Amino acid sequence: MKTYTNVKDLGNLQEAVKEALEVKKNRFAYKHLGMDKTCLMIFFNSSLRTRLSTQKAAMNLGMNTMVLDVNQGAWKLETERGVIMDGDKPEHILEAIPVMGCYCDIIGVRAFAQFENKADDYSEKILNQFIKYSGKPVFSMEAATGHPLQAFADLITIEEYKTKPRPKVVLTWAPHPRALPQAVPNSFADFMNEADVDFVITHPKGYELAEQFVRGAKVEYDQRKAFEGADFIYAKNWAAYQDPNYGKILSKDMDWTVNTEKMGLTNNANFMHCLPVRRNMIVSDDVIESPQSIVIPEAANREISAQVVLKRMLESL
Ligand code: AN0
Ligand code: CP
Q1: Are residue 152 and residue 295 in the same domain, yes or no?
Q2: Ranges under pLDDT 70 in the chain
Q3: Residue 114 sits in a domain of what CATH number?
Q4: Which ligand lies nearest to the CA atom of residue 50 in the structure?
Q5: 38 and 152, same structural domain?
Q6: What is the CB < 6 Å shell around ligand 2?
Q7: What DSSP assignment string belongs to 102-114?
Q8: What Å distances lie between residue 281 and 38, 173, 174, 176, CA to CA?
Q9: Ligand 1: residues whose CB is within 6 Å?
Q10: Which of the listed residues 302, 303, 305 should we mutate to test ligand 2's pocket, taking the one with most ligand atoms within 8 A of CB?
C-alpha cells in the first residue's frame, strides 16, 4: 500500500476487516516488519486518539515514531506557490515536505479542511503535496475530506458488535457550537456504502454531504423516522458542504441531540461517535454512559485500523 486516503486503498474490505481482527488477536506478531523503520506523524491540527493510537500501532510493529506539531515549534509554513514570502511564514511547504521525507520511511498527515476555499479543501491540496513531494508512502490522519483511519476502525467495531448479518446503520447530524469538517461523515459514508449494511443518513435540510461520498445512500430528513429499527446510531456534527454555505453553521437545533427518548425508537442500537464529543450537544450524558454506548471500544479499534494500514505499507516498502 503506497497511500491511504480513502476506502479504495484497502482493496477488498472484507479481507481488510479479517486482517484487522487477526492483528487484534496478536498485535505483536509483526514486530520484525518495522525494525529500523521510522514513522513520521505530522499534525497541522490537534489530536488525542490519532496521535496515540497511531504511535501505538507503529510501536506494535517495531517501528520508531516521530511526531511533529507544525503549529507548535516548527516554522510556519507557506502553502501557496508564487507568494512573495515577506510575511510571517519563514518556510515553504515545497521544501519542508521533501525534507521531512528524508528522515522517515512512512508519513502520516493530519491537515483539516480550512473552510477558506472549497476547491482547495476538496482537492486535498495539502495531503496531495505530501504524496507528490515527500517520496514516501503517505497516510491520512484526517485530511480535508476524509478520515479513513476512523472509518476503518468504525467498520471493525460494527463487525464486532453486530447481531445480524446486515445491520441498519444510521449516520445522524447533531448540533455543535463550532464549524466542523465533513471529513468524518464523508469517510463513514464512503465505508458504509461499501459494507454489507443498510445505511441511512439523517440531517437537517442544507447539510447534504458531497455526492461522491453519499452516492446511493438513503437520506431521511426526519431524524426520528431514520432511527426506527436502527442497530447502530453514529452521531457527528459537520458544517454545511453545499454552496453558498460551505463551512457555515446553519443550525444548532438541540432537537437533533441524541437522547434516551430517540434511542428508544431503535432496535436497542449501539451508540457510536469518533470522539471528541460535546456532551449534551451531540449526545446526552445518559446515552453516552449507557451500556449501549461503544465509543470506548470504537476508539480502541483506532490502534487496530492504524496497525493494518502501517503493516500493509511496511510490506510494500
Ligand atoms: C474534528 C472533526 O470534527 O473533524 C476531529 C474529529 C476526529 N473534531 C473537532 O475538531 C472537535
Ligand atoms: N477520533 C479522532 O480522530 O480523535 P482525535 O482528533 O483526538 O485524534
Answers
A1: yes
A2: none
A3: 3.40.50.1370
A4: 2
A5: no
A6: 47-50, 142, 150, 274-276
A7: HT-SEEEEE----
A8: 40, 11, 7, 6
A9: 142, 180-181, 183-184, 274, 276
A10: 302
How many domains does the chain divide into? 2
| 233-278 pLDDT per residue, tens | 999 999 999 999 999 999 999 999 999 999 999 999 999 999 999 9
C-alpha 5 to ligand 1 mean position (Å): 17
Ligand nearest to the CA of 184: 1
Which residues lie across from 63 on neighbouring strands? none
Q: Whose CA is nearest to atom 1 of ligand 1?
A: 180
Cα dihedral: 79, 80, 86, 92 (round 10): 40
Average model confidence (pLDDT) across the chain: 98
If asked whether residues 30 and 115 sit together in one domain, one would say yes
Residue 106 has what pLDDT?
98
Percent of the chain with pLDDT over 70: 100
What spacing in Å lies between the alpha carbon of 147 and ligand 2's midpoint?
9
Same domain, 69 and 135: yes
Q: pLDDT tens for residues 58-105?
A: 999 999 999 999 989 899 999 999 999 999 999 999 999 999 999 999
Give the pLDDT of residue 73.
87
What ligand is nearest to the CA atom of residue 47?
Answer: 2
Distance in angstroms (rounded) separating the CA atoms of residues 174 and 190: 19
